[in-house]
Design a protein that fits this description.
Length: 165
């Protein structure tokens, strides 16, 4: 299923963009603040923006689960060849408090582990009981192999975000 972002630009607020020195959970200076949404430099947007695709845009979930409607962005993270998780980036403080969000995340977490990156730096794992044995590998993968850097980018580098050093 092919989708387009339409007026959704939640990733522009939730994700970091290394090329723009934009931190996570800070609206991008090029994000269009109107009902149409979008990017003011769309044709010249950085490579990380051009290559990013959220889980909804990839054809998963229903129309009502578009990131700007549920208040968080879900993205895949390939931690290892045999282990993929989802990363959730809430873009609004109340996004994870709605019944719809809780239901969606708990349902998805029964199939694939989800790591929620909160704006305050806290991480929260949602994982099915039968997958709990994966937690040590997930933790190691997040910290050493596919870390989220200070700009919110997933990187396959053995580093710790600058703020934690």
């Amino acid at each position: 299923m092919t989708r387009s972002c339409g007026s959704c630009s939640e990733c522009c607020s939730a994700l970091g963009v290394h090329e723009l020195n934009k931190e996570m959970f800070v609206p991008c200076r090029y994000q269009i603040q109107s009902e149409q949404g979008g990017c003011g430099v769309y044709d010249k947007r950085p490579t990380s923006c051009r290559e990013f695709s959220c889980v909804w845009l990839d054809g998963n979930f229903e129309e009502q689960h578009r990131p700007d409607r549920i208040g968080f962005v879900l993205a895949t993270a390939d931690l290892y060849e045999d282990l993929v998780i989802l990363i959730a980036y809430p873009s609004r403080p109340d996004a994870l408090q709605t019944e719809e969000s809780k239901t969606l995340l708990n349902l998805v977490a029964q199939q694939i582990p989800i790591c929620i990156f909160h704006p305050n730096g806290r991480r929260q794992m949602l994982i099915a009981e039968d997958q709990r044995h994966l937690l040590p590998r997930i933790q190691l993968g997040l910290e050493a192999r596919a870390v989220v850097d200070e700009n919110g980018e997933l990187r396959r580098l053995p580093l710790v975000p600058e703020a934690d050093r």
